Amino acid sequence: MFTRELSKAFEPHETEKRLYEYWIKNKLFHARDESEAKAFSIVIPPPNVTGMLHMGHALNNTLQDIIVRFKRMQGYNTLWMPGMDHAGIATQNVVEKELAKEGKSRHDLGREKFVARVWEWKEKYGGVIINQLKRLGCSCDWDRQRFTMDEGLSRAVREVFVRLYNEGMIYQGDYIVNWCPRCHTAISDLEVEFKQDNSFLWDIRYPFADGSGEIIVATTRPETMLGDTAVAVNPDDDRYKDVVGKYIILPLVNRKIPIIADEYVTTDFGSGAVKITPASDPNDFAIAQRHNLEIISVIDGLGNINEHGGVYKGLDRYEARKQVVTDLEKGGYLVKTEPYTHSVGQCYRCKTDIEPMVSKQWFVKIKPLAKQAIAAVVKGKTKIVPGTWEATYFEWMNNIRDWCISRQLWWGHRIPVWYCGDCGKVIVSLTDPDKCPDCSGASLRQDEDVLDTWFSSSLWPFSTLGWPAKTEALKTFYPTSLLVTGFDILFFWVARMMMMGLYVMKEVPFKDVYLHALVRDEKGEKMSKSKGNSIDPLVMIDQYGTDAFRFTLAAYTAQGRDVRMSAERIEGYKFFVNKIWNASKLTFANLEDYDESKTAAVEDSLSDKWIKARLNRAVEEVTHSLDKYQFNDAAAAIYHFIWHEFCDWYLELSKPAFYGKVSPEQRLATQRTLYDVFGKMLLLLHPFMPFVTEELWQVLNRSDEKSIMISSFPVAEKAWEDEAAEKEMELLMNVITSVRNIRGEMQISPSRKLDVLISVSDEKLKGIIEAGSNYIVNLANLKSMAVEINLAEPKGVATGVVGPLLVFVPLTGIVDFAGEKARLEKEIAKVQKDLDKSARKLANRDFCEKAAEAAIKKEEDKLKESKERHAALEKALNKLKEMQS
RNA sequence: GGGCGGGUAGCUCAGCUGGGAGAGCGCCACGCUUACACCGUGGAUGUCACAGGUUCAAGUCCUGUCCCGCCUACCA
To answer: CB of A841 within 8 A of CB of A829?
Structure first.
């Protein structure tokens, strides 16, 4: 007896909850630090602690779980390492907003209290996403869950910082950085987003100091002229040959500044002269370094003009722009104002315009690290899939600039650097020092900055495994086998993990990187809260169940292509789950009395052999596709097998056995096949649909103790290969389809039982058809069926041509000869096309001489087939005409 | 400016190393046949963006053009 009776339809919610708890309770997600089995490991791209599950997460984690479950079932000691990211700016913003509601800022609390408050927030509200991942069915080893700010990972961060510093790979200095006046911190180049801005280009007249004339410069940011310390022209620009070395008097400011020559300036834009503001523009900064120019910052960290801005002091940068333009105009310095579209950098977090600013920051010398990271991919130590991304990776790595790792935030890993108040010594230390090692002074002050969040994420593949301790986990699971992530963080994260992994561990962090596409809405637009077009994965799960949702994600993940998500598609796969559920009801009902011990001597029927051979092919295709991360192909293969082979054909073919219309031996054979095939089918599907397959697996095996999760993934069974059975069955299926076609086209009621005559060309075929007559009679709904060799075309029939045989359906009582005539003519026209095409090809001398032999043979066979088919149809048509006249 | 991806059935897409244009949804017709109407059976539907080229043979390879999307750079 089965343990459970199945409900009318699959009930996802109750089942998902029960089974997930069951998996957890039995520690089925657990990976062993030490094991005989080969290891397979993935680290999760750690979601932000502030994060809520969106479609991107859903896709990312579904794909990981599919691979993880697949590998686990294949017998690997499989680790899926979970955790979260502290997300510096994002989290600090959330808590600051909370404070703002109380009318306070973080400065009211002070650093220590503020950080305590963030931790409090984290404990209370953080990590909602972890439970959401569980609803997705993710089989992470939750006992190992890590957080980038936890003790172990913080130690790893410090260790790496100190090591980099001691090896001269980290330096501090005054450089121009991207400054967010709202977040009040520097951010890296990657964190700047560029947006089109419709603004103006202003041409300004700068008079020469000696009164001999003037030079015109163009700018999009007139307010920065307050900090100009030079004007630059191209050294080869004939127009300005004589003025290089001269001075101009800066309007409004009355500062005397030089005209210099630098290759950076292009001759064909504007006047060919550029104002140089080293403190407010990265290119100008670079020029200033080359020419030893003075650097005057006129804008402060809030985006206001500072004391170097004279009368403009205190104005915000946009007000200052207006005022400067007005004053220039008044003074007669403004030559021209024209509309101009250019792009402006914005903070990726808060969309505030970036203010390039000179400030003291910490940097990582990145070139040496990048060099190794490039080499590793070149040598194939890490493979990027799809391979097209490798070019992008190289491009970026080759043009990489030093990484600004300091952030002026309070939430994050504080930089482990102290300054001695007595002797000025800089102390970089693994542990907090209490006195200066040089002068023993105790007035130490720690650097105020924290590290870029991505600094700790870049260590993720080994820090989560216990590094710097030499753990068993590290030995077993590093380098990890695979990283699955969106291409949008290829540079932010993947590239940096490569660099850090190679630097610290001397080994790549992962062997494969699978980059999946972005999830978009139905119209192909990026989903975002502000656009209101985002689909909430949890709503989809509630509505259609996790299995259907996951399968949809997999089915639409073709490599390198964006996923356009719509609820309609998920619904389609909910129907698929339902189909499986119903098929299992039929299956279980007919396995109720199945006794495996009696099956030793029984022999499989043709349909049994056929479905086993077909399953073999499905197994091969799914395995092969998953090995190559072709999720859509794998999903399609399963879908097709289950619905269109197992359900549409096999279950129908087996019904006579179910309903006792065959011998007990044959019934047993069918039960055996059904049991084996259904079980393997569930196994094959499990990585995609973990819940429904587990539920059915337990019923099938009459035990809620066994889990499908730890059963072996199917392999193609040599003994099940049977090409002959596949061919024979295909022929019978074609005969059945042919009768159905006639029935459909001729509008013969499905309930009307037909008498059918079949003409075959030889004994062998006759044998096959006769042996399969049961199948044909049942599935084509026949009253009777007769087979003869070279049967003469009877009168008053509809004719179907199936390869070498003819199917005659008597039209007695139907007598729609006009319909049959139309049907035949349509068929003939179709065949004629094929025939012409093949004939034309074979008449071509070049084709016969140059094409591959197999191609020619194929074409000849095709022509022969078309000819025969055509002749048979013509004959049928003539007979029909004869009869009518 | 540089780079990448895409333009295939009404819609969304698949089509890997060149040899018979596919799937799902939608549509039409017929059916409550003892798992399933969240179903079954049958059917219709394509100048594979455009123009050249290579080849016996091109949706597939090459060149160019036109659209669409993304990444990257940031010429004031």
So the answer is: no
